[in-house]
Amino acid sequence: MTAIAHISDPHFGTENPAVLDALLGDLKGLRPSLVALSGDLTQRARTAQFRAARAFLDELQTPYLVVPGNHDVPLYNVVRRFFDPLGSYRNEITDDLAPTFNDDKLAVAGISTAHGFTAKGGRITSEQIGAATTSLATANGKWKVIVAHHPFVGPERAQGDIVDGAEPALVAFRTAGVHMILTGHLHVSFTDDAAMRDEGHRIINVHAGTCMSTRTREEPNNYNRILFDGDEVTVLVRMWNGTAFVDGDHKVYRRSAVAGREIRKQQ
Ligand SMILES: [Fe+2]
Ligand SMILES: [Fe+2]
C-alpha cells in the first residue's frame, strides 16, 4: 500500500537516542513510499547537528523529502542569519529548497517557510506558491500533498505560529486540487479537514509532534503513518510509549474530486 511516514521536528542536538533507534526501526518496518520530514532538523543549526540529521536520512532505506524549519536558521549568528540563513542546511542536507516527489499515486511538493528575519515565524511567497502548484498541476489522479514546516491553520492558541501568506497559499492550493498539507513546528499532533472548507472543498490538515526530541509539549514523541488506499486515506498517529512506538488515534478521509472529506473518526 502507498504510504507516507510524516515525521517532524527531530531537533538533533536534543534527540532521545532510544526514540531515534526505535523510529528508525519503525520506518524500516513500514517501508513507506516516502518519508516526509517537515523541518526543525536541528536544535541550533549547528554543523554537528546537521551532520547527525544527515546520518539519520542516510540510514533510511526509502525515498525522503525534507524541508527546513526555523530552528535550521542560526539564532545567534546574526550575520549568517540575515545573509545566508540556510547555508548550513544547504551544505549538509540539500540545496533543494523546493523538493518534489512523484510516483504513480503521489505528487508531493515541499516548501521552505524558514527565513532569517524572525526567530520563530515562517513565511511563504507567491513565487513559492507558484512553484509548488505548478509542480502539482500535471498530477491529476494522484494524491496531491504539500509539505512545509509552519502550519497554515491551527488551534486558537497557535494563531501566532501560522505561516505568513497562509491565506493566498490555501486559495492557490485549493485551485490546484491539493488534498493534504503536512506540517510541524507546534510539537503537537492533530489532523482535521479544516485547512480549507469552501463549498465542499476540503484540504486535510496533518500536523505531527516531535518525532524524537526531548522538547515535547503536552504529549510524547510521535509521527504519522499516512496510508493511501484508492480514494481513501488513513492518518494513523504512532506514539512513543516509553519503550516503543505504538498505534494511537487514527482518522479516515475520502478524497473527493477536489479534496478530502472525513468519513469516520475513531479514538
Ligand atoms: Fe520544532
Ligand atoms: Fe519550528
Q: What does this molecule look like?
A:
Helix 5 runs parallel beside helix 6. It is globular, with a radius of gyration of 17 Å. It has a single domain, classed as Purple Acid Phosphatase, chain A, domain 2. The strands form two sheets. Strands 3-2-1-10-11-12-13 form a seven-stranded mixed β-sheet. It has 267 residues and is α/β, with parallel strands linked by helices. The longest helix is centred in the N-terminal third of the chain and has 14 residues, at 17-30. It has helices at residues 17-30, 47-59, 78-83, 87-92, 126-137, 166-175; strands at residues 2-7, 34-38, 64-67, 100-102, 106-111, 143-148, 180-183, 190-198, 201-207, 222-229, 232-240, 245-255, 260-266. The model has no long low-confidence stretch (mean pLDDT 91). It is built from six helices and 13 strands. Bound molecules: fe (ii) ion (2 copies).
Give the structural class.
alpha/beta
User: What ligand species are in this complex?
Assistant: fe (ii) ion
Low-confidence stretches: none
Most strands sheet: 7 strands, mixed
CATH class call: Alpha Beta
Give the overall shape: globular
Query: And the CATH topology?
Result: Purple Acid Phosphatase, chain A, domain 2
What is the β-strand count?
Answer: 13
Topology at a glance:
Blueprint: E1 2-7, H1 17-30, E2 34-38, H2 47-59, E3 64-67, H3 78-83, H4 87-92, E4 100-102, E5 106-111, H5 126-137, E6 143-148, H6 166-175, E7 180-183, E8 190-198, E9 201-207, E10 222-229, E11 232-240, E12 245-255, E13 260-266
Parallel strand pairs: 1-2, 2-3, 5-6, 6-7, 7-9
Antiparallel strand pairs: 1-10, 4-5, 8-9, 10-11, 11-12, 12-13
The chain binds fe (ii) ion (FE2) (2 copies).
